[in-house]
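Lab notebook, bench 4. Still working through the backlog of constructs that have no structural model yet. Next entry is a single chain of 73 residues. Request: give me the structure tokens for it.
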Amino acid sequence: NQGVLATGMDADADRDRLVRMRLELSDGAARLHPLPMQESHMLSNLASAHVLAWLPAREGAFATGERVAWIPI
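Model written out:
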């Protein structure tokens, strides 16, 4: 699945990340809203997450509106 980021996200140059997000379907498009507290030991936001978005390792930040892959949870 592909969706667009509702807000920009920092990238990690050394590793891929799976980010917990809320999914909003609007006019047939998937908009992905990142949840707070994304550190690996903070799992409380899993109850609010609809999807995991894959952010591949890279130097530059991910821009608002950029397309990324996601999987439902």
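Notes after review: The two ends are 13 Å apart (CA to CA). The chain has a mean pLDDT of 93. Flag for follow-up if needed.
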